[in-house]
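Sanity check

After download, print the first record. It should look like this:
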Amino acid sequence: MEILVVTLGILLAFTLNNWNESRKERNTLGQYRENLIAELEIDLEQTNRLDSASRRREDQIKQYLEYKKSADVEIDRLIIKMSQINTTVDGFNKHAYTLDELTTTGGIALFSEEEKRRSENSKEPLNYTISTKNYTSED
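Expected structure tokens:
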């Protein structure tokens, strides 16, 4: 009888331990998901800001070139218009620290195989193309 009680106690302890470990993994996985989403939102915001700045810069260049092509160009005004063009190009700084952590620590294993497959199947190749236009004095 004592052996049965001890055996049941050990089985119960293993069951509770497994349940607790599963709970911890679920909590960790949930935190990873939240962090990934937050970091992607930051990256998207930054991308949108960079895109807006690029569009403003393109508009400034177009306005400058239009004025330069006009018949009554004043050199002083042309210089002012040129100096108003923001030529600073900000770089993109990714915020994918959680993804880096998941890949280096092996935490990616916490995600189910179906989640990984679904993620891989939904990914499009990341092709970043930059539309380049040659702005010359002939434009």
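If your output differs, re-run the checksum step. Summary of this record's structure: Confidence is low (pLDDT under 50) at residues 124-139.
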